[in-house]
Structure formats: C-alpha cells, structure tokens
Amino acid sequence: MDDALIISRGLARRYNVGKTVVAALSGIDLAIPRGEFAALVGPSGSGKSTLLNLIGGLDRPSGGEICVDGLSLGSATEPQLVRHRRARVGFIFQSFNLLPTLTALENVESPMVLAEVSRSERLARAAGLLESVGLAQRISHKPNELSGGEKQRVAIARALANRPSLLLADEPTGNLDSKTGSAVLDLLCNLVRQNGLTLVMVTHDPEVASRADRIFHLRDGSVQHVDNRRKPEAPA
Ligand code: ADP
Ligand code: MG
Known about the structure:
The chain is of the alpha/beta class. About 35% of the residues lie in helices and about 30% in strands. Strands 6-7-8-3-9-10 form a 6-stranded mixed sheet. A 4-stranded antiparallel sheet has the order 2-1-4-5, with helices on one face. Strand 4 and strand 5 (about 70) form a beta hairpin. Helix 3 packs across helix 4, helix 3 packs parallel to helix 5 (about 150-160) and helix 5 runs parallel beside helix 6. The longest helix is centred in the last third of the chain and has 17 residues, at about 180-195. Magnesium ion (MG) binds near residues 48, 49 and 202.
C-alpha cells in the first residue's frame, strides 16, 4: 500500500507530565488507502484522539513518521502544516465546535474566509453545502436554535467547505441519541462516497465501526489488530 493516503511508521507521541513521561502513542504502523472509511476504536485513553490529531496536523509526533498525501507532517514547515489543515482536511468533533454567535451559514463560511475564498463564492458554496446536509431551511439559525443532529450536520457542511480530500471525525455521534446518530452517520457515509473522500473516524460504538472498511483496534498507544472488512475482490 505504498500509494496509501495515510502512512505511519513507528509513530510515537509522548507527553511530559511533571517528571513523568506519558506515552500516548508508541510505535504505530498503519496505512489507510484513499477513498476508505477507517475506524479507530479502543478503550478511553488508548490514543485514538492523539492519532487523529497527528493525522490532521493539529499536533506533531515525538518520534517516527506520519505521511499524508506524500507530506511528512513531522518535518513539514509550519506553513505547510497550516495548508494541510486548511486545504486537505475537514474536522468533525463530538461537541460540534460551532461558533455560537454565528448563523449556520456563517459557520460554514468561516473556513473559506481563512482560505480567502471570495464572498460570493463563499455564500454560494455554504448555501449549497447546507442544502446537501438537509438544512436549506435553517441557514439563518444560530447553533442554540438547532437540535444536536442539526448542529452536527452544520459541522459536517463546515468540514467540507474547503473541499478537503480527508475527513477526520472524533466520536461524531457521541453526543447524539442513537436514531439521530445513525442518520448523521448515513449522511456522512453518503457524502464521503459521493465525493470520493477518505474518512477516519474515532468511535466507541461497535455498530458505527461496523460500517467502516477497516477497523484499527488501539490499546495502550499501539495498534493491537486490524480488521479489513472490504470484501476480497472477485478473481478475474
Ligand atoms: P483516547 O482518545 O483514546 O481516549 P487520547 O489520545 O486522548 O485517548 O489520550 C491517550 C493518552 O495520552 C491518555 O493516557 C491521555 O491521558 C494522554 N494524554 C492525551 N493528551 C495529553 C496531554 N495534552 N498531556 C498529557 N497527557 C495527555
Ligand atoms: Mg478521545
């Protein structure tokens, strides 16, 4: 899988806490092909969020290597890392992380402001994205005027604003009831397939993980095993 979108070798992240060193990740080797839905599962504290943040360029490794689309994030310059976060990656969080004073439309526009997209293009794209997540009637609502499921749909639209190739989601259904969560998951899976995106999702929920093409089971900062759930290709 040399052409995988995400490749890590010996990836490590250590935190200094007082005089002790916490190894959040130690020696992660993995490869995630383009266009796949990969799930990261494991007990609390096993390093799932740390791994997701390293893939997203929100954090830097303490050792080993993590490459996304050919860019080695450990040795990338700060501007390269900013460009990676802004142009290549869309983030979705458990607690939505919408800006409370902005409308749904303005929340979806906000990453495009940073990417210096023109105002007319921003408005057109944000409205189109909100429509694609089923919220055409909610564009002027503020987050506190939206349900949890609607907030997460806005967050998904926002994650897609700069047309990323990679979506990273940290327990995106964790704050939703199971029916709403499964509708949000359906939406996410459909958008990912339609747009040929790669999705890496942290989840506690075995049912959510069962939708993935590949499941990485983490424990104590290592990959314990990998389930490849893609059906083997039919012989020619
Ligand atoms: P998960 O998302 O699987 O619950 P995390 O990636 O958040 O796990 O954390 C992995 C380990 O690293 C945990 O032991 C956690 O306490 C530790 N950790 C995470 N972030 C920090 C930090 N900023 N400082 C110190 N320790 C941290
Ligand atoms: Mg976590």
